[in-house]
Write a structure and sequence with these properties.
binds manganese (II) ion, 19 strands, eight-stranded mixed β-sheet, binds zinc ion, six-stranded mixed β-sheet, about 550 residues, binds ligand BES
Length: about 550
């Protein structure tokens, strides 16, 4: 359930709630500059000067991450007050604003508060979208399977945002947008957190269909039979060792007159046991999150349905369960890809790049201007960058710049890694066109190089290895433990910027508040995906593979 959020230009001291959180810029506190209004005005007086004394004792200067908590003993209309330092407001990035609001929402849940009052200093009224995103993302908990005492009795349901400055005219728009964005990220988290006995490939596809219906998007689901018919043999190989057979999902948003087409692709391994190259027991359960890239596609597309951008957006994911079985694929097998390359299987635990190969070969049939894939692909990427940072690759500098700007705007932690041509030799096979794994060293790079073999003539491609941050080992920023939805915000920024840069659509651009006609009315994409890539493109792809 989304939070009930109100926005008013009012001092927090005049609001009622269970917990009050007030953000204060550096040099703030109660010793403010003459005439400057502070969200703390009125609070210290009501508390009989106790807050001022505490802030002084704690040497509270409003520095970033400084925090002081005080019980109000009923002297203001909240049980507890937390004063948070925000540092220099001019330096507050989207990540800082989101993290501040997320902390407030988390504190509210910890306090069993039903209503949170949050006070923002002057200057943050233009950042309502980020505040609301942070609130919704911070309030997130995955409690679906808890019963009895484990089930939280109280849930944060309401937030009063108190502005020190004037409320902006577009306050409602910002709140709605922030809630739509956070709902998409939270949907991705929910899917990622679902246990693998519940969320298997077909169940995942059903969830995607429900989302598409909600969001007014077109969606196609290819079942196991269709996958075999189309020749998606790599996806078949990975999935056939499971009772729960693989499938593929394709969402599309095709507004009339769109000048740009972006396709997103995700890895949806609903459980990765490693297959016959089985993983060690310790930590295997974490591999329920191995569909986080695909979950991001569902979350992202749910936002696209609300945002109705002026660009064409496709969201594609391949879903499979990687299991050992009498019918499982084996190391030593040779399988053809959707675009006709033969692949020698080395290690059945490197399953992600195989299902992505077929998904990318399918996506390129749409002839996107920009193709972005994301996947919990390699442990090597986690070794390189740690748990909070994903690694990304781009096939040209202009695309890299574009993606880097979106990373900056979103505040997600992502670092560019190189497509080192030097490592390409590792993928040479004695029995097929390609091996699908290389050496242990540079494992994230060789995986990216393998994927590149399947993008054909797509001019702009980004691959994002989210293995680390997709599954949080602890609370961090606005992210909870478990599924995080890392990636959605950056991908959304790519879409929003492309939409802003695009010439206006022929039909009046529908606003978020006003329901637009259903997406069904939109025409089909220019190029229908062919089971096999066009011969001309195939030749180009071959050339690239050899160069
Ligand atoms: N899903 C894993 C990668 C992974 C590891 C994600 C840790 C999140 C946390 C992937 O399918 C995998 O097993 N990759 C292997 C590849 C290797 C066999 C070449 C790996 O990274 O060890
Ligand atoms: Mn694996
Ligand atoms: Zn995997």
């Amino acid at each position: 359930m989304p939070l009930k959020i109100s926005v008013r230009s009012v001092l927090p001291a005049r609001e009622t709630g269970d917990l009050m959180v007030i953000g204060v810029p550096a040099q703030g506190g109660t010793s403010k500059k003459k005439n400057a209004r502070s969200p703390l005005d009125g609070v210290d007086r009501a508390l009989g000067g106790a807050l001022g004394r505490l802030l002084k004792k704690e040497e509270f200067k409003g520095k970033k991450d400084q925090q002081v908590s005080i019980s109000t003993l009923g002297k203001i209309k909240a049980d507890r007050l937390i004063v948070c330092g925000l540092g220099d407001l001019a330096k507050l990035g989207p990540a800082d604003v989101r993290t501040f609001a997320a902390k407030a929402a988390r504190a509210a849940n910890a306090d069993k508060a039903k209503k949170l009052v949050i006070g923002l200093p002057e200057g943050l009224e233009g950042r309502l979208r980020e505040v609301v995103e942070g609130l919704e993302l911070g309030a997130y908990r995955f409690t679906k399977y808890m019963t009895g005492d484990r089930k939280p009795k109280v849930e944060l349901g309401q937030v009063a945002i108190c502005l020190t400055g004037a409320a902006p005219a577009n306050a409602k728009e910002q709140v709605d947008l922030g809630q739509a964005v956070a709902a998409g990220v939270n949907l991705s988290r929910d899917l990622s957190n679902e246990p693998p006995n519940v969320l298997y490939p077909d169940a995942f596809a059903a969830a995607a269909q429900a989302t598409a219906k909600d969001a007014g998007l077109k969606v196609q689901v290819f079942d196991y039979k269709e996958i075999q018919r189309r020749g998606m043999k790599l996806l078949q190989a990975v999935g056939q060792g499971s009772e729960r057979k693989p499938c593929m999902v394709h969402f599309s948003w095709t507004p009339p007159g769109a000048s740009r087409r972006i396709a997103f692709v995700g890895k949806g391994i609903t459980f990765d046991s490693g297959g016959l190259s089985i993983k060690p027991a310790a930590g295997m359960g974490e591999m329920k999150h191995d569909m986080s890239g695909a979950a991001n596609i569902v979350g992202l597309m749910s936002i696209v349905g609300r945002l109705k951008p002026n660009v064409e957006v496709h969201g594609i994911f391949a879903a499979a369960e990687n299991m050992p079985d009498g019918n499982a694929y084996r190391p030593g097998d040779v399988w053809p890809s959707l675009d006709g390359k033969s692949v020698e299987i080395i290690n059945t635990d490197a399953e992600g790049r195989l299902i992505l190969a077929d998904a990318l070969a399918y996506a390129r049939g749409l002839e996107p201007d920009l193709l972005v894939d994301n996947a919990t692909l390699t442990g090597a990427c986690v070794v390189a960058l740690g748990n909070s940072c994903s690694g990304w690759y781009a096939n040209n500098e202009a695309t890299a710049e574009e993606f880097q700007s979106s990373v900056k705007n979103s505040g997600e932690i992502m670092w560019r890694l190189p497509l080192l041509e030097d490592l390409k030799d590792q993928l040479k096979s004695d029995s097929a066109d390609l091996k699908h794994t290389g050496d242990r060293w540079g494992g994230s790079i060789s995986a990216a190089l393998f994927l590149r073999e399947f993008i054909g003539a797509v001019p702009n491609w980004v691959h994002c290895d989210i293995a680390g941050p997709a599954m949080g080992d602890r609370v961090r920023g606005w992210d909870p433990k478990g599924g995080t939805g890392h990636g959605v915000l950056t991908f959304l920024d790519l879409i929003e910027r492309a939409s802003k840069a695009a010439p206006p659509a022929k039909a009046p651009a529908p606003s978020l508040a006003k329901a637009a006609p259903p997406a069904k009315a939109a025409p089909a994409p220019k190029a229908a995906p062919a089971p096999k890539a066009a011969p001309a493109k195939k030749a180009k792809a071959k050339k690239r593979a050899k160069s």
